[in-house]
Design brief:
This protein has about 150 residues and is mainly α. It has seven helices and three strands, in the order βααββααααα. It starts with a strand and ends with a helix. Keywords: Coiled coil, DNA-binding. Pfam families: MerR_1 (PF13411).
Length: about 150
């Protein structure tokens, strides 16, 4: 199936200028054009765009994504290089997930903190002070406890 740039922008939830930028940067080397130069996307291009967005979500820079796609075009001679790249992306994604999980723990803790304070009409209540004990603070970590127990 063929798609216009506007259709792809909607499908991918990307802007048309972003798609043009990806093309200009060489991230869509197999993208076909009409005789008048109009971009015509197909399902394979959508798959490539999904991979671009996936790699971007792990913090990979455009120049490195381009290097990956160049390796893909090279074929089997770059399998090891591409495998190592994905191992690095996996490690980076796991690191980001860990950071987000810790942030979510803090946010959940603060939601409970403020729910209790809202119900009591004040943050100056024993239950909240007790919740900030070493045993109840998320991760049982002093620095985390200091951040959690401050009234933000």
């Amino acid at each position: 199936m063929e798609y216009t740039i506007g259709e792809v922008a909607k499908i991918m939830n990307l802007s048309v200028p972003t798609l043009r930028y990806y093309d200009k940067e060489g991230l869509l080397p197999l993208l076909e054009r009409t005789e008048r130069g109009i971009r015509r996307f197909n399902d394979n291009d959508i798959s490539w765009l999904n991979m671009i967005e996936c790699l971007k979500n792990t913090g990979m820079q455009i120049k490195d994504i381009k290097t990956f796609f160049e390796g893909y075009v090279e074929g089997d001679s770059s399998i090891e290089k591409r495998y190592k790249m994905f191992l690095e992306r996996k490690a980076e994604a796991e690191k980001r997930i860990e950071i987000l999980q810790k942030s979510l723990e803090l946010i959940n803790y603060k939601c409970n903190y403020y729910k209790t304070a809202l119900e009591a009409g004040t943050t100056d209540i024993p239950e909240l002070q007790q919740a900030c004990s070493e045993h109840d603070a998320p991760n049982n970590h002093k620095l985390f406890k200091d951040v959690v127990c401050k009234e933000y």
